Amino acid sequence: MTADALSLTLSALADPTRRAILQRLSEGEASVSELTAPFDISMPAISRHLKVLEQAGLVARTRHAQWRPVQLNAAPLAELANWVERYRRHWDQNFARMDAYLAELQKGNPNGPKQ
User: What's the pTM?
Assistant: First the structure.
């Protein structure tokens, strides 16, 4: 994932309304009016949120006759998950060292595990 794509994805996900829209779209495509229903904001406001999600590549609009459904595109989320995964491994290593240190403290060894 490029830095620009990552920034667009993270920026789009920064808003709770946009995250809620993505959550709804994870259940299947929906019209703009269906996406507007659970919120106390106008349809134009939802359309602006959808534009941000579209620019980040997180949603796509299609056309079926008169119906213009919005669909989730999860590819940028998968790329974001891969990016975050690198840091999860780092956290896991730190937690493993902390677990070993705490285990040594419980055994009465204040200097921690032997290196």
Answer: 0.75
